[in-house]
Amino acid sequence: MTEQLRDRYDVVVIGGGAAGLNGALMLARSRRSVVVLDAGSPRNAPAEGVHGLLARDGMPPAELLERGRVEVRRYGGQVVAGTVTGAARDAGGFTVALEGGRTVRARRLLVTTGLVDELPDVQGLRERWGRDVVHCPYCHGWEVRDQAIGILAGGPMSMHQALLFRQLSADVVFFAHTAPPPSGEEAEQLAARGVRVVEGKVVALEIAGDRIAGVRLADGSVVARDALAVAPRMVARADFLAGLGLRPAEHPSGAGEHVPSDATGRTDVPGVWVAGNVTDLTAQVGAAAAAGAAAGAQINADLVAEEARQAVEARRAPFSAESEARVCEAVLGDRRHGL
Fold first, then answer.
1. Contact of 101 with 83, CB cutoff 8 Å
2. Strand pairing category for 172-175 and 149-152
3. Is the model's pLDDT at 338 over the cut of 50?
4. What's the DSSP call for residue 129?
5. What span, in angstroms and rounded, lies between the C-alpha atoms of 303 and 202?
6. What predicted TM-score, i.e. pTM, was given to this entire model?
7. Across-strand partners of 273?
């Protein structure tokens, strides 16, 4: 990604994942000048493959993104390496600032920067993230099917997560960790599904042969497991939007923070759209790509409407001036004739 930035574009897409690239593809195919600014830190980089994506199931994430970049460039779009540090409104739209002092201007912004997974503080967990420490049964569930799976409680989605992974394996253990153990209806559901609840804080993962062998508790006991599912707090990468008055808000699910938008991706800041995990915390790659395409189409339609208004105003302007001249001439003529 060594392309040179131009000074101004119709649309700057901030974020080079599936949502951003598909949005840029739609815009480039609509003959819009568009650039994708890619910081190069995709959320799914640790995963071996993308799953649940028709005709691309199992493809390595890096390969999927490289194919997307090629497609965007095929239609004249640009993909440029760069980390955005801020954005501000100017007379023509927006000015986007990047690390290193570069700036670029745009009429519209599409933000697809995704999110950060804030993982529990358990020794060895981060190193296994995306391998045998997983979070999504639809992304990684098949790969851990029929294994001994642990569920590490850590948020409002943990109970739901336990029931979903029970669909994939008969050997599921729910680790209460720092939360109170499930009670009432939740406890009854777990018991009915044969999910054992283990109380006590989890402090580390036991690793053997580059695989999880068990989960170690604070009392020193170890529960043998092959995989561990966690529910990280998911936080939108959107601090750079603060200059526009656009800040992440708590997601209704309680699972983290997102940038709110309407169904089309339009935010409360005119001219700014969002797509993918930055606004939809649970979107898989396919859903993120679809949202990017939809937002790209909406942005193009918004620009088309603006250009139509400007064209009408420009067309009317000469006639208005001519009409005004005729009125002035008529008034002067009346005065000359004493009327």
1. no
2. parallel
3. no
4. B
5. 53
6. 0.90
7. 110, 266
CA 35 to chain centre: 17
pLDDT single digits (tens) 165-195: 999 999 999 999 999 999 999 999 999 999 9
Residue type for position 251: H
| Amino acid occupying residue 191 | A
- The β-bridge relationship of strands 233-236 and 115-118 is antiparallel
| Rounded-to-integer distance, Cα 309 and Cα 267, Å | 22
Going by pLDDT thresholds of 50, 70 and 90, the confidence category of residue 324 is low
Angle at which helices 18-29 and 285-336 cross, to 10°: 40
Question: DSSP letters of 157-217?
Answer: THHHHHHHHHTT-S-EEEE-TTSPPP-HHHHHHHHHTTPEEE-S-EEEEEESSSSEEEEEE
pLDDT (tens digit per residue) in 227-268: 999 999 999 999 999 999 999 999 999 999 999 999 999 999
Alpha carbons 276 and 31: distance in angstroms, whole number: 23
How many other CB atoms are there within 10 angstroms of residue 43's CB atom? 19
Please name the helix (run of DSSP H) or strand (run of DSSP E) that holds residue 272, with its range, or none.
Answer: strand 272-274
> Under DSSP, is residue 262 helix (H, G, I), strand (E, B) or coil?
coil
Mean pLDDT in residue range 330-334? 46
Which tokens sit at 227? 């995989």
Asked if 202 and 176 count as a contact pair (C-beta separation under 8 A), the reply is: no
Percent of the chain with pLDDT over 70: 93
Which of 116, 135, 308, 92 minimizes the C-alpha distance to 229? 135
